[in-house]
Amino acid sequence: MPTPSPPSLPSPRSNPYARLFALPGTRAFTAWNLLARLPMGMFGVGAVLMISAERGSYALAGAVTATGLAATALAGPWTARLVDRHGQARVTVPAAALASLGSLSLVLCVHFDAPAWTLFAAYAATATTPNTGGMSRARWAHLLRTDPAALHTANAFEQAADEACFMLGPVLATFLCTSFFPEAGTLAAALMFLTGAVLFAAQKRTEPPISAAPLQRRSPLRGNRGLAAILVVLVCTGALFGSLEVVTIGFADAQGHRAAAGAVLALQAAGSCAAGLLYGLTRPSSPAAARFPRCLAAMAALALLPLLTTAAGGGLPFLAVALLLAGMATAPTMVTGMNLVQGLTPPGSLNEGMTLAVTGLLTGIAAGSAAGGWAVEHLGTWGYAVPAGAAAAALLTATAGRRALAGRPVLTVRPAA
């Protein structure tokens, strides 16, 4: 069956983002995907606040969230392979339902004071969480497969959407947990996620078709040194995100402003969101493989700001400013990294390739969450050394693997005329 021609975009002179959403069906799948994605910024903070409030231990809270993320990282590529094989609609709904049951189990275990090991088991049951952000990017990659410049803008929008979700999610989770009851954040997140995932899956008009070519039985990582290299970098980047979240919650609590933790984390995401939208308006002239280390260098440099601020005795307002500035390097780094992943992944395995990228991030976030929980209880104001070290590791890893990243064809964007 021949692949249908991609829809035509409006004139290049129009706003790049307006051009994207002029395509039929893009507004609907984006809206429901955002509803499903917003809880991704709520689950971690909601679980940390719920467990630490009920059990009195940040180390336990960090370890439980790390376990859930690690389980998702292991199961995610298998779920994505099912999506590539059977389509987004057929896999998303049952996978989201199972993951939501896992979140409900965690709430019940915490509420009824079940043994600590049940918390780990319940959160691990959320491993079937489908990669809704990756599926949205796969839709854009299909719709814009003949227009690399528009795809760059779409990837920038998706990254900004991720940051917006992680900007609003912690604030909403913190408000619910501190204003109502500790389990409120997780319960609301599970309901929103399931609703959004079901309605996103129903938007079949823009769903990428199942590849007519026989699907690979092996992972796209096999024999792909460039993709392997970028995944290692994403593990380090995820460790930055995971540790930053837990250390910031612990620091705000120590300052007597526990309820402000979500707002402070939101500022970091706000800086990244704004930078991502601006980055989407540019037309980079150099390949993504060349831009990626430069983006990581900026991220590593700015990741030092929270550490320097807290080590110098700065309070929560100064930390908020430092996190806002630090966040400005995140979106350009992630947009460039996702461009690389899309270019290095075989066409018939795009959902799996995008999920492998998220798997790398989740693996790092899991390790970072656990390390951040330990840092809160043992390093005090020096806890931000953990995210700063993770950012430096990401830069060093990319520098060491730079030749591998450039060794395969990657998606590049034509310079503006």
TrEMBL record:
The chain crosses the membrane at residues 34-52, 58-79, 91-114, 184-202, 227-252, 258-280, 353-376, 382-401. The keyword Transmembrane applies. The keyword Transmembrane helix applies. GO terms for molecular function: transmembrane transporter activity. Keywords: Membrane, Transmembrane, Transmembrane helix. SUPFAM superfamilies: MFS general substrate transporter (SSF103473). PANTHER family: MAJOR FACILITATOR SUPERFAMILY (MFS) PROFILE DOMAIN-CONTAINING PROTEIN, PTHR23542. This is MFS transporter. It comes from Streptomyces telluris. The lineage of its organism: Bacteria, Bacillati, Actinomycetota, Actinomycetes, Kitasatosporales.
